[in-house]
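Support case: flavin-adenine dinucleotide complex. Customer-provided input:
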Amino acid sequence: MGLLSGRKTVYVDSDVLVIGGGMAGCGATYEARYWGRDLNIVCVEKANIERSGAVAQGLYAINCYMGMQWDENQPEDHVRYARNDLMGLVREDLGYDIARHVDSSVHKFEEWGLPIMKDPETGRYMREGKWQIMIHGESYKPIVAEAARKAASKVYNRIMVTHLLMDKTKANRVAGAVGFNVRTGDFYVFRAPAVIVAAGGASHIYKPRAVGEGMGRTWYAPWSSASAYALPILAGAKMTQMENRIVLTRFKDGYGPVGAYFLHLKTYTENAYGDEYESNWYENTKELVGDYIDRHPVPTCLRNHAILEEIKAGRGPIRMVTKEAFQDPHKETIGWENFLGMTIGQAVVWASQNIDPKHTNPELTTSEPYVMGSHATCSGAWASGPEDYAPSEYQWGYNRMMTVDGLFGAGDTIGGTAHKFSSGSFAEGRIAAKAAVNYVKDLGKERPQVSEAEYQNLKKVVFQPMENYEVGRNEIVAGTVSPSYILPIHGLQRLEKIMDEYVGGISSHYMTNEPLLTRGLELLGMLKADLNQIGAEDLHQLQRAWELQHRVLASESVTHHTMFRTETRWPGYYYRGDHMKLDDKDWHCFTLSQYDRESGEWAMEKAPVYHIVD
Ligand SMILES: Cc1cc2nc3c(=O)[nH]c(=O)nc-3n(C[C@H](O)[C@H](O)[C@H](O)COP(=O)(O)OP(=O)(O)OC[C@H]3O[C@@H](n4cnc5c(N)ncnc54)[C@H](O)[C@@H]3O)c2cc1C
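Agent response - structure generated as follows:
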C-alpha cells in the first residue's frame, strides 16, 4: 500500500461535470453557463483543452453547416443525407435536432474569430461541398476552447477520468466520476448530479496500417481512447450501433483527407491501369445491398467496397488523379493548403516519397476501422431524444440523457447520429448541456450521494498497475518482459491483433463470421483477465494502462454487436462472411447492448428505426 498512502485525494463538487474538453465538451461547457448562470460548471480533460481532441491540429473545413440563412439546405435535407449514407439507419430525431441548431454554433465560431472563407461576389461562406464550408482552421480548437474556459467555473486539465461514480441512494443514477492527474498523480473525486460525457471516439482498437516506424500514425486522433464508450458501458448505459465501425479511404501512408480533393478540386480515382473501375462493381454491389447502390450520393461504405473489390481483383493500387487539377495554380495551392491546415504529415510523406501530385497520381488506401459517433458512422450511447420531435419510444427523460439518470453525452459519445462532425458535435454539446441544467434545476435541493467505500476502492484499483510494476519489476532479468505483468504497449498490440484478425480488420479485408467472432470474444476475455496484471512504470504508463482498459471494453462491445447483427449492412466497412447480404426484413433496426459489470455479461436487443422525415 506504499503507493497509495502518499497519494493526495482532491474533492471537486459541481452541478454539471463535463468529461472531455474537445468540440462537444467545449460546446457543453459554454452552454451550461448560459442556462445555469449560478451553477458550478466543471470541465475535466486528460490533455489541455487548448489543443485537445480530434480538432487539435486544426481543420480546413467545417463539415456540417446547413446555410439556412441563404436557404441553401434545411435540417430535413441533412437527415435524408445522413440516413442515405448510413444505409437507412439513423436516429432521425437526434440528427434533426443537431441540424436545426448547428448553423448558430458556426456563427458563434466566426464571431469568436475563426476565419471562414467567403465568396467575394455573394458574401456567402465558400462551400467545399453541399454540407462543408471552408475555413482557415489551424486555430479552430484554441478559439473554441477560449469560450469554454471563460464559461467554466473551473477547467481541470491533465486529469484522466477512469470511472463514473454511482449514487448510493438511488440505483441507476450517476453521482460523479474519478480520475487521476497524469502529471502529479493526485486522485480526483468529482461529485456532480449531472455528468456529460464528451470524451471522443476510438482509434487503436484495430491494428493500424502504419506499424513499425510509422506506429502511432492513425487517421483518427491516436489519443482518442474509447473513454466515451467505456465510461457509460461500465455504468450500465445502453449502447447502440457499436458494430458500425468506420473505414476511410485516404491518401496512403499519411491518412491525408480526400474530401477537398473530390469536392473542390474535382479530382477522381482510377485503378492501376488508368481505368475507371466503380461501374465494374455495380452488379456485384446491387446483389449485396439492392437499391441502396442507386442512391445519390452513393453511400460512403459502398464506395469503399468498389475500391476493395478492385484491389482484390488484382488491379490495385487505386490512385487519385491529381495531375490534371494541379495544372491549375489555384487548385494546386488549395491542394497543399488543405494539408497544411489539417494533416501536415501527408505533405511530409509525399515529400519523403518523391510524390509531387502535379506529376504523380498519389495512391489511396482504406484505413483500419475506427469507432466513433460523429463522422460517417454512428456508434455510441443510446440517448433520449428532443421533447418536441422524438417518438415516445425514444424519450425517457431529458434530451441526450442516456439510460442512466443524470448521465448525458454529446459528439462521438452519442450513437445513431452520423455526420455531425466538429460543428454538430459542438452543437450537440450545447443541446446536452441545456438539458443537463434543466435536470439539475428539477432536482432542487436533492443531490446524489457518493459512497466513500466506492471511491476508496476505485483509488486502489486505479493505481494498482503502478503497484504491479513496483513489485513485479524485480523479477526481470533482461528486456521488458516480466512474468508478473504485461505492459500497456503489449496489451495494446494484443488487442489490435485480436480485433484485426477476428473482428474484421485490414488483414482479412474487413471480413468476419460467427466462428471468428466467437473466438475473438474468447481471446478478448483472456486479455481482460490479464489486464488485472498490467504494470505501469510511471504516470504516463498509468494513463496508457487505463486507455487500454477503455479500448478493450469498447472492443468487446463492438464484437458483441457485430455478432448480433446477422447481415452485412455496410459492405466496405465490414463483412459478415456467413451473412453477406443486407437484410432489411430482419435488420432495419438499431442494435442495443447493455453490460452488466457484476457478471460481465452483455444483453443484446433490437430497437425500431422511426422514419420521421419523408
Ligand atoms: C482526422 C480527422 C479529420 C476530421 N476532419 C473534419 C473536418 O474536416 N471537418 C469537421 O467538421 N470535422 C472533422 N472531423 C471530425 C471532428 O473532429 C469530430 O467530429 C469532433 O472532434 C468530435 O467531437 P468530440 O468532442 O466528440 O471529440 P473530441 O473533439 O475528440 O474531444 C474529446 C476530448 O475528450 C478528451 N478525453 C478523452 N478521454 C478522456 C478521459 N478519459 N478523461 C478526460 N478527458 C478525456 C480528449 O482529450 C478530447 O479533448 C475530423 C476528425 C478527424 C479525426
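The first strand starts at residue 9 and ends at 13.

Case will auto-close in a few days if no follow-up is received.
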